[in-house]
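Sequence design from tokenized structure. All designs in this work follow the same two-part layout: the structure record, then the generated sequence. An example of the structure record is given first.
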């Protein structure tokens, strides 16, 4: 159940209640692709840094260790020892981005595994079955993520097929949730809006999928090569045509600035690999901008990554020490950087919720963006 608590312009402050707990939105989902955050981060760490919801990947878990294995072990929550909500993406994006050899047909997609080359078929029913085996809180519909700059004729045909696939996803999810051996019989389904950077296709698709009365709606196919201006334009065009009484999820986005701008346009849910990926390379987010710990100027810097930050890295260690760990290729360096970045994102979402609650979102957004652009680090 989704309940809007406060609005400030188009920015929404809401609660989303699930069988695995209530999520306060806007929220950033911490990305644990193969049921773990890259960088030696445990689920106990996620609890400590204020993570509300974790995201795992259907395709990767299907390939390894196998969704049937996860089901035999009691589902993803039990497997990774995490009792809060989990969203699993449909595998569609990976099928289209990782598979060099693939054939798209009406029934689904034939492709080769990126790990061992074995032939795999995935369609709407298979994606739902895999996600049901994983027993995540929220399952994503199987869609085609067409390239942002694809020609209009291709995008129209692709979106029409994605709409047909969505109907099949809904029917299969209802069937799976009714089976006696299904672990999570309350699994939720989010549909995905596609249409590249064509507003008319996006809006028409949003209208069509809204009629299916799903548990939530995502905007997919952005942050895949288009400009930030195009991204914001599409979000602004689409959100009015998605049900306001359901959560809106912007997939795979993004930078702190992207999130601040998208919240301003009515988005609730976000996920992105940036904080963990950048952290593993010593690139850290602060309220005064990004820093690269590999820079020589931090060799003797005994300050924390950010003064006043309460993350596990900043409470105890200096920039100089963490830089040394990274240079020495010591795993602890990566771990501390990832923890800092995820804490920064999670804390920013708390600040966003507080600002909307107070009716001060515009002032907060300006202050946050100005600070991060100041470069006083």
């Amino acid at each position: 159940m989704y309940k809007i608590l406060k609005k400030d312009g188009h920015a929404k402050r809401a609660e989303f209640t699930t069988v695995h707990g209530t999520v306060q939105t806007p929220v950033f989902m911490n990305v644990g692709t193969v049921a773990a955050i890259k960088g030696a981060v445990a689920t106990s760490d996620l609890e400590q840094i204020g993570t509300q919801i974790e995201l795992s990947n259907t395709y990767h878990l299907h390939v390894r260790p196998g969704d049937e294995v996860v089901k035999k072990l009691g589902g993803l929550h039990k497997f990774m020892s995490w009792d809060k909500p989990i969203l699993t993406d449909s595998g569609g994006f990976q099928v289209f981005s990782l598979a060099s050899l693939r054939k798209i047909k009406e029934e689904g997609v034939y492709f080769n595994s990126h790990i061992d080359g074995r032939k795999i078929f995935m369609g709407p029913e298979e994606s739902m079955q895999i996600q049901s085996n994983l027993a995540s809180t929220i399952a994503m519909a199987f869609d085609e993520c067409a390239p942002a700059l694809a020609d209009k004729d291709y995008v129209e045909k692709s979106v029409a097929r994605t709409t047909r696939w969505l109907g099949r996803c809904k029917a299969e999810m209802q069937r799976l949730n009714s089976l006696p051996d299904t672990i999570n019989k309350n699994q939720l389904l989010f549909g995905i809006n596609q249409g590249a950077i064509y507003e008319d296709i996006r809006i028409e698709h949003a209208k069509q999928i809204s009629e299916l009365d799903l548990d939530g709606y995502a905007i997919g196919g952005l942050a895949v090569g288009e400009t930030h201006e195009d991204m914001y334009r599409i979000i602004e065009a689409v959100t009015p045509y998605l049900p306001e009484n359901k959560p809106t999820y912007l997939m795979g986005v993004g930078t702190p600035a992207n999130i601040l701008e998208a919240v301003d346009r009515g988005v609730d849910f976000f996920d992105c690999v940036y904080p963990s990926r950048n952290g593993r390379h010593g690139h850290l987010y602060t309220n005064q901008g990004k820093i690269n710990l590999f820079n020589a100027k931090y060799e003797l810097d005994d300050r924390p990554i950010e003064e006043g930050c309460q993350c596990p890295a900043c409470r105890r260690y200096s920039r100089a020490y963490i830089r040394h760990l990274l240079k020495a290729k010591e795993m602890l360096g990566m771990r501390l950087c990832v923890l800092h970045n995820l804490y920064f994102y999670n804390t920013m979402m708390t600040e966003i919720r507080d600002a909307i609650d107070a009716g001060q979102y515009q002032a907060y957004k300006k202050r946050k963006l100005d600070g991060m652009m100041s470069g006083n680090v």
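DSSP finds 14 helices and 16 strands in the chain. We note this feature because it recurs in several other targets discussed in the main text.
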